[in-house]
């Protein structure tokens, strides 16, 4: 959604918005929330103090440029104050000093006010923008009119976190009921499994274990094994070295398989965690799936899949995916109804 559309949506939703409130909207869309964050502890305490309930219910509101406002007292999706604060802090780490975008938004506001499409006059908007045109980029506050009318209690976060909120809420709920919780993310190659696991890991402070680290070693690559659906991953070693220790909540080590030298690499030490994520194709193999608390399946349009693989791995490797690895994955998905057995599929 471009910024003019964002401003018009907010005008309709918050008719008492003043020029300064529109400028704040432009400021947040252009710069995000980096100017508001000192450290996680202080961010968490401030979020907690603004929440009316122990577990706030939130909803998001698009503000453009890949950001949303996360409203804390909305009667929406339940998440903890800690998670709300963490999304806020993580979003702040990615911001940049995007003054060109801000000034483009400023021109949008001037145009909208000139055309009478937002309530503030063109002169009021120009006055609210004047300090920026003189080089003062200090943060903008909401007007007293806006605060009185709408009682804002929100944080600006990246839109990618907003899309995952229902899933984040579900996993938080599971974590509150049992310990440990183990989540599996299976699905088609290039469907976003690594991206999703990284996002959930950062928001929920969960370690991620990759099935690519358990590629089948040469000694096990018999004709019989490779003809078995899902047989090209070392699911026995994954259970022994990772899944069983996770279930017991004990520290452990494992040795990732290094495909570049076709051998196990140096041991990695791992600590138990309330929530752990297993990511990768074959993670929901029938010898493993019964011990997961939640299973996610990701798919992607086949044409988009090939384009992503080409961009990520190059034309030569694309042929390996097309001729060998994608057919093997699809045979595994179909043989064991992996998508159908998932708790959620995207």
The main β sheet shows up as:
5 strands, parallel
* Alpha carbon gap, first and last residue: 23 Å
| Helix-strand pattern | HHHEEEHHHHEHHEHEHHEEEEEEHHE
Shape: elongated
Mean pLDDT across the residues is: 94
Q: Give the C-alpha Rg.
A: 24 Å
Give the low-pLDDT segments. Answer: none
Describe this structure in words.
The protein is α/β, with parallel strands linked by helices and about 350 residues long. The chain is built from 14 helices and 13 strands. A five-stranded parallel beta sheet has the order 6-11-5-12-13, with helices on both faces. A hairpin with a 4-residue loop joins strand 8 (about 255-260) and strand 9 (about 265). Helix 5 (about 100-115) packs antiparallel against helix 6. It starts with a helix and ends with a strand.
In short:
By secondary structure, the chain is α/β, with parallel strands linked by helices. It has helices at residues 3-13, 19-31, 40-50, 81-92, 99-114, 122-133, 144-150, 159-163, 165-177, 193-204, 223-226, 235-248, 302-336, 338-341; strands spanning 57-64, 67-71, 77-78, 154-158, 181-187, 208-210, 252-254, 257-258, 263-264, 268-270, 275-279, 294-298, 344-345. Strand 8 and strand 9 (263-264) form a beta hairpin.
Topology, element by element:
Elements: H1 3-13, H2 19-31, H3 40-50, E1 57-64, E2 67-71, E3 77-78, H4 81-92, H5 99-114, H6 122-133, H7 144-150, E4 154-158, H8 159-163, H9 165-177, E5 181-187, H10 193-204, E6 208-210, H11 223-226, H12 235-248, E7 252-254, E8 257-258, E9 263-264, E10 268-270, E11 275-279, E12 294-298, H13 302-336, H14 338-341, E13 344-345
Parallel strand pairs: 5-11, 5-12, 6-11, 12-13
Antiparallel strand pairs: 1-2, 1-3, 2-4, 7-10, 8-9
Helix pairs in contact: 2-5, 2-6, 3-4, 5-6
